[in-house]
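Tokens as discussed.
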């Protein structure tokens, strides 16, 4: 009997139709065996043996995929090791329980975050923990070698190491019951051109080994045991998808320019060097938002100037046309395990981002010095988050100049003029946009937080998430005001929030005069193609007509 389901948020585009293969993960739950005081030393030896084996595997895999380099850093983390050994000593538990407990708690920290990009990093920790547990229990990890015919893989969840092991000759797509669209699994699926749908709640109860599945990675449509009419419909969709993909590939060889010659910059958001490489492969002009939080969150200490410089320099070399580095944006739901912060009743409005940087000047200067030094290797820009006053901007610029003078005195090279921009993500910044524009080099609109603050909607709260709307009149008026203020002072205005990668908004934002779109690398081909088939004059006229003929732009 034919069944249908719909996945709201899609992970990787593509059309696939094949027999279902249900993947059951091996049991890697910890064994609760007792350990005597004398046996604790043997348990520690088991841990170090497993750690060595896991690191050897990950370092071998890292040569092919940078994601596994970050996995190796997690496995090698000194704080993680110490916490596991301490858990064993203090609770007299075996190494399996200690590994499961410590990694589970670390993953839970990320899962509690509101930021989707950070939330999904919990899966990375769990993947590393899975490899530890397999070694400690003497189990084999998932083996897909038995797949010898075209299938759509269905699983409770998959990890990057699972995706890396898939034979793409036979696996035509996958669907998971859990997971998120920003996970490394989703990123790897996009890189491989593999259609993927994650977070398909209830999928395992709807399929069997004899099921046939049709899936649309763009619309989120899943049809189980389709009739002939549905199979023919999906066959047609697959042909159209291939034609569209060919058009996107052709569009990628041309600039993001409308039919009547209006050029915009198409950039990508990135959180690590692997993201930068993916962006360049997708013909991004540059990196419109380089998040630096992950560099801090994957370490057991505040990264040194040299550690940061090495990353920023490599990113600048990979993206010489533009690398916009956002200064540290911790606080709120982004905690560092080695930096104690007080519990706050409303952390989203608390001590975070620029507020921490301006209070902890030593940390701020360490990062700024690394950024300034990297500016000698590409067109580096500094982006300041969460500003609400001109005083914050002026103080931050003063610290930047102080760092520049120090570097010059030390004989260290940096660009003579590094642009400093404001990330517009607070209502205060919108209302003061005209004043900010006079004292900054560029604007970058961060719609994710801006929408949340303007509409008083917690996007992580399921009860009100439906009210989170980037097309709300208040949001569109705020965006229009910022663009107008920036252009009034002849500074470029970009957008780095999710709205920039929403094709429903592209024409509207083009018509409003947005200069730069920055988005997930996988969205670039689709948005570029859309821009190339638009008329700037026409989109501008539509915006003007809506502004004059209605009370809002919705």
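Sequence:
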């Amino acid at each position: 009997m034919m069944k249908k389901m719909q996945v709201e948020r899609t992970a990787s585009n593509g059309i696939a139709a094949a027999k279902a293969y249900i993947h059951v993960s091996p049991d890697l739950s910890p064994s609760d065996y007792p350990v005597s005081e004398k046996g604790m030393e043997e348990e520690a030896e088991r841990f170090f043996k497993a750690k060595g084996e896991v690191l050897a595997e990950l370092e071998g895999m890292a040569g092919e995929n940078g994601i596994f380099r970050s996995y190796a850093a997690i496995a090698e983390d000194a704080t993680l090791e110490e916490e596991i050994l301490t858990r064993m000593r203090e609770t007299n538990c075996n190494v399996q329980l200690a590994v499961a407990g410590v990694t589970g708690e670390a993953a839970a920290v990320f899962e509690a975050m509101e930021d989707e990009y950070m939330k999904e990093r919990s899966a990375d920790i769990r993947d590393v923990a899975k490899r530890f547990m397999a070694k400690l229990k003497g189990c084999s990890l998932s083996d897909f070698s038995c797949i010898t015919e075209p299938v759509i893989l269905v699983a409770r969840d998959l990890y990057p190491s699972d995706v890396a092991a898939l034979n793409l000759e036979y696996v035509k797509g996958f669907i998971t019951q859990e997971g998120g669209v920003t996970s490394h699994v989703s990123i790897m699926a996009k890189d491989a051109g593999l259609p993927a749908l994650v977070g398909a709640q209830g999928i395992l109860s709807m399929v069997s080994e004899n099921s046939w599945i049709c899936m649309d990675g763009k619309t989120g449509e899943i049809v189980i045991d389709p009739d002939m009419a549905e199979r023919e419909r999906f066959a047609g969709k697959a042909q159209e998808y291939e034609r569209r993909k060919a058009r996107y590939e052709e569009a990628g060889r041309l600039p993001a320019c409308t039919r009547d010659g209006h050029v915009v910059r198409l950039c990508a958001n990135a959180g690590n060097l692997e993201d930068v490489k993916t962006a360049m492969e997708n013909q991004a002009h540059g990196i419109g938002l380089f998040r630096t939080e992950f560099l801090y969150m994957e370490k057991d200490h505040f990264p040194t100037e040299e550690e940061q410089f090495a990353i920023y320099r490599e990113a600048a070399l990979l993206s010489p046309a533009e690398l916009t580095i956002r200064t540290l944006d911790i606080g709120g739901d982004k905690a560092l395990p080695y930096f104690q912060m007080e519990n706050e009743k409303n952390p989203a409005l608390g001590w975070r981002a620029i507020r921490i940087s301006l209070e902890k000047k030593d940390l701020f200067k360490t990062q700024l010095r690394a950024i300034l030094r990297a500016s000698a290797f590409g067109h580096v820009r500094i982006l300041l988050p969460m500003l609400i006053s001109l005083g914050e901007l002026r103080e931050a610029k003063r610290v930047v100049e102080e760092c520049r003078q120090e570097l010059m005195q030390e004989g260290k090279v940096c660009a003579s003029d590094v642009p400093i921009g404001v990330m517009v993500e607070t209502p205060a910044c919108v209302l003061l946009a005209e004043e900010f524009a006079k004292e900054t080099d560029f604007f970058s609109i961060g719609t994710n937080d801006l929408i949340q603050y303007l509409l008083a909607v917690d996007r992580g709260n399921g009860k009100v998430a439906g009210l989170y709307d980037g097309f709300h009149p208040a949001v569109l008026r705020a965006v229009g005001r910022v663009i107008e203020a920036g252009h009034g002072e002849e500074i470029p205005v970009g957008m780095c929030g999710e709205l920039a990668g929403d094709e429903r908004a592209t024409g509207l934002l083009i018509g409003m005069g947005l200069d730069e779109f920055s988005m997930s690398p996988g969205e670039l081909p689709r948005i570029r193609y859309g821009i190339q088939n638009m008329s700037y004059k026409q989109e501008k006229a539509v915006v003007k007509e809506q502004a004059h003929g209605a009370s809002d732009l919705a």
